[in-house]
Design goal:
about 70 residues, mainly alpha
Length: about 70
């Protein structure tokens, strides 16, 4: 069951990361988003970090409420 909670947290974190990127990149032009390769390093990692934190958070909440495993 802990794997299911981790997967749910990962998906929820990924969606949160997408919403965060939408907020952060809303003033960028379309051509700038397509042509500027440095944006991947600046903003691309944010989405995966949010997904990892979401998975970690859900696993820790599961452990808190339902025991170690």
């Amino acid at each position: 069951m802990i794997y299911a909670m981790g997967a749910i947290g990962f998906v929820m974190g990924f969606v949160f990361g997408q919403m965060l990127l939408y907020f952060l990149l809303r003033h960028r032009k379309r051509y700038e988003l397509l042509e500027d390769k440095s944006l991947w390093w600046q903003y691309g990692i944010i989405n995966w970090a949010c997904a990892a934190m979401g998975a970690y958070g859900m696993i820790e909440m599961y452990r808190l409420y339902y025991g170690p495993y």
